[in-house]
Amino acid sequence: MIKSYFYEQETNRMHHDIDLQDIPDYLHSKSDLLWIDLYDVKLEELKRIAKIFNFHPLAIEDCLHDSPRAKMDDYEEYYFFVFHALRYNEESDEEISTVELNVFLGPNYVVTIHKKKLFGLGKIAAVSLHHPRFLEKGADYLLYAMIDSITDEYFPILDRINTRIDELEDEMYERKNKEVTEEFLALKRTIILIRRVILPQRRIFSNSNGKWQFEMTESNVPFFIDLIDHLERIVDSTETCRDLVNSALDTYYSIVSANQTEKLNILTMISTIMLPLTFITGFFGMNVPLPYQDSPWMTVVIFTILGALTWMMYRFFKKKKFL
To answer: How far is it, in rounded angstroms, from Cα 165 to Cα 188?
Structure first.
């Protein structure tokens, strides 16, 4: 599916679904802006767009294959970006997944390519059908709007992860070992994936000595500064979540170890109490004559002695707080 949105500055109007053959005619004016959105397109359609804009074959190859990291390539006449949005499904076996967004940023055009639907782009497209709010400030502002919408989707995911950590901290005293361990490991995998996605994206928009990695208009600089702030907050939140998970996991292992030690102590005390009883019954069970063994009361006396010995050892261990 190919959607197109064209902003004409002279008339301050939006046009959409233009004929692809007429695209070169829409690129004459530097003040206008053309946005081409390609969703789940076939190879032939992608090659057609690449031929119109003269995109580099390596950039097109990156669009055909999923890239694990965000990046930016400078092709002089345009910039090529790879970004990732997150999809979070707590009930799925694959709890978190990424949706890749490829962006070609030119002086007066933006081409976006993605294989799956992106909610943020959908909202921008819906507004752009009737209003030039996202296109009237230039190609770099449209890029900002897209990445900002993707970035905003991270925050509910991080909020849910924090909630899950709090729930696990309350439940790890009651739930089974295997369930809690699997929950913690799933959270760690989720946090690692978020960090692997967000860190390269933060580097793309970072500036060194006031110099940005790609050209942008001066009026749009504050928007990208705000975007960097959001990315920094996400990075800080992931680090906090990672520390919380590690601390909770250490605490959980300490609880498990303490429970096992307590059970081991109980078993040791039982063995210690049973040791003299086993010795006495074993000694007199080796054909050793037992005094008054012909008397029926002797069995009662033996049981009484063994019971008293057991009670005395139990009281002794209880007093020493071994039990």
So the answer is: 11
Tell me how far apart the alpha carbons of residues 181 and 214 are, in angstroms, rounded to a whole number.
Answer: 44
Q: Is the per-residue pLDDT at 93 higher than 70?
A: no
Decide if 6 contacts 16 (C-beta within 8 A). Answer: yes
Per-residue CA distances from 256 to 71, 265, 323 (Å): 43, 14, 18
Which three-class secondary structure state does DSSP give residue 170? helix
Tell me the pTM.
0.76
Find the DSSP H helices in the chain: 23-26, 43-53, 57-64, 119-128, 139-152, 154-171, 177-204, 221-284, 297-319
Q: Quote the DSSP letter at residue 132.
A: -
β-pairing, 33-39 vs 13-16, is: unpaired
Region label for 40, one of left (φ > 0), alpha (ψ between -120 and 50) or beta (otherwise) = left
Per residue in 261-296, pLDDT tens?
777 777 777 777 777 777 677 766 666 666 666 677
- The DSSP output letter for 21 is G
Is residue 122 within 8 A of residue 87, CB to CB? The reply is no
Report which of 115, 145, 125, 153 is spatially closest to residue 234, judged by C-alpha positions.
153
Q: Give CA–CA dist 33/14, Å, rounded.
A: 10
CA-CA distance, 139 to 126, in Å (whole number)?
18
pLDDT band at 104 (very low <50, low <70, confident <90, very high): very high
Question: How far is the C-alpha of 14 from the C-alpha of 128, rounded, in Å?
Answer: 7
Write out the DSSP string of 65-88.
Answer: S--SS-EEEE-SS-EEEEEEEEEE
